[in-house]
Amino acid sequence: MKWLKRLWWSAVLLGIGLAVSVWATWETDRQLGDLVARWAPEPSSFVELDGMQVHMRDTGPRDDPYPIVLLHGMSSSLHTYEGWQTALQGKHRIISVDLPGFGLTGPSPQGDYRIDAYTRFVLRLLDTLGLRRVVLVGNALGGEVAWQTAVLAPERVRKLVLIDSDGYQPSVLSMPIAFQIASMRGLRWVAERILPRSLVASSVRSVFGDPAKATKDKVDRYFELNLRVGNRRALFQRMDQAQFGGNSALIHRVQQPTLVMWGEKDEMISPDQGNLFCRDIPRCKLVTFPGLGHLPQEENPQATLKVFLDFLASTN
Hints:
This protein is of the alpha/beta class. It is about 40% helix and about 15% strand. The protein has an eight-stranded mixed sheet with strand order 1-2-4-3-5-6-7-8, with helices on both faces. The longest helix is centred in the first third of the chain and has 24 residues, at about 1-25.
């Protein structure tokens, strides 16, 4: 029976080790008021929409006939476009927004994170702001929301920009560990309560072509905003409701002039998928960026902005 006693003690020690690990990495939710001071300075504002206080930034001249609306990806926030917004707001009206479930906007009261819920949200946001027709830009999840909005309401979208966008059945090369955990239902209770900063730092490094670009400030931002009350559960719900590639047959219905931008070192979504978009969208241009990863607009705002402005100025 000695082996049974050793097994019992091993189980006890394993349980103690797990308990200590959970205790050491336990992170309570951050209340909105605690986060606003740091992450919502001017020109941030909040607008009530669909039972949420939606965090947004609306800058630049109000007489711009075609405002630019920027949509971020999963577990990100409007801050991913700060470089773009700062550079563009002198001549263009720029609207960036934290999508439901992310950033300071926080969870949807309905718990609905399907793409059609996001497209309806975008259209109601445009109505609320009195925007009839816009240039719509989206990265990753925001890219799929953007192109599906362009299909659903083509009269509202003048031009479309897709940055490392979701849309096709993914050929995932490397999913950040935070997303891997979010996909494991058996770990949900624990994962809603722990969030090691080291795990967030590793995930952020993995989405940059140059991991050194994952600075302390960027890691702090991703870490703290994902701790906003309700955001961890919202991520799990989004993962449960996602149908990656489920609507890819609709992509050929995109008729707007479209710029597809892709980081060649994207390890989340294969750069080959950029070619698929331009295969299926009739008026499409693909530009890739050597050395950049899944968030090229954040990793190198200058290089990506130059391409975007050329596209914006084109008559196509």
